[in-house]
Amino acid sequence: MIDNKKNKENLVIFMHIPKTAGTSLLKVAQQQYKQDESRIILVGRDLNMIGKEINKSNIKYIQGHYPFGIHQYFTSPAVYITMIRDPIERVISEFYFIQKVPQHDLFIYKQIEKKQMSLEDYIDMDNEKFKLRNANMQTRFLSGGNTIDLEKAKENINKNFAFVGITEMFDESLFLLQKKLGWKNVKYSKVNVNKSRPLKDQISLEVLQKIKMKNQLDIELYEWVKGIFNKQLNKFN
């Protein structure tokens, strides 16, 4: 990951991978910037138009469910931040979140309801719409969205990311964010937590193995990032 002392002066792009605690992080980010300095970009917007608007504005922080690459629309020097999560936990969380909040992915929700899908059924689905959700999503986002390339994802992190946090180590992630970006007075409460979903240890070993097999690249990426994260954290101990 890049180590830039001017990180705070750059446009910060939070690449929000679904179900990685991004909404909780947004609440923290909103404490760091004035109302006219931050913006959430909704999926489906014309990025050329958004770029023109932001380039004329005082925006210092943007966030959205967009893969790596949207910095090309902005004239200001930009750094990325993101959070990644245990891939098995992320997939389980998203399946139950879609059932609870259909607008998260209305197409998938309708298919789940129509076919009365279980978590196992959801994992077994191999069409492209489902694979965007149930297979290596984090590697795809970090690769640039069009391909799933683990080495490209690592390269993008090394060259363009000021920070990659770990969902399971959220407090420690906020600590490093303060060091990396100079954020202050970091306070948060967990948002979009589905307390009714089953825990990982309540899922059958067979289903867990299926999730693992479909997310091998995400698992390798997660372990790689966690290794870097722990080394950075140890520097401050």
Q: What does this entry show, briefly?
A:
The chain is an alpha/beta fold and 237 residues long.
Q: Secondary-structure map with pairings?
A:
Layout: E1 11-15, H1 22-29, E2 38-40, H2 47-55, E3 61-64, E4 78-84, H3 87-100, H4 106-115, H5 119-124, H6 128-134, H7 137-143, H8 150-160, E5 161-166, H9 170-181, H10 205-214, H11 216-234
Parallel strand pairs: 1-3, 1-4, 2-3, 4-5
Write up what this structure looks like:
This protein has 237 residues and is α/β, with parallel strands linked by helices. Helix content is 48%, strand content 11%. It has 11 helices and 5 strands, in the order E-H-E-H-E-E-H-H-H-H-H-H-E-H-H-H. A 5-stranded parallel β-sheet has the order 2-3-1-4-5. Helix 7 (137-143) crosses helix 8 (150-160). The longest helix is centred in the C-terminal third of the chain and has 19 residues, at 216-234. It is globular, with a radius of gyration of 18 Å. The relative contact order is 0.18. The model has no long low-confidence stretch (mean pLDDT 91).
Pick out the low-confidence regions: none
Kindly provide the radius of gyration, computed on alpha-carbon positions and rounded to a whole number of angstroms: 18 Å
Largest β sheet strand count, sense and barrel closure: 5 strands, parallel
- The tally of strands reads 5
Mean pLDDT value: 91
Secondary structural class? alpha/beta
Order of helices and strands: EHEHEEHHHHHHEHHH
Distance separating the two termini = 20 Å
Per the principal axes of the C-alpha atoms, what is the gross shape?
Answer: globular
Q: Count the helices. How many? A: 11
Roughly what percent helix? 40-55%
Strand content: 5-15%
Main sheet strand line-up: 2-3-1-4-5
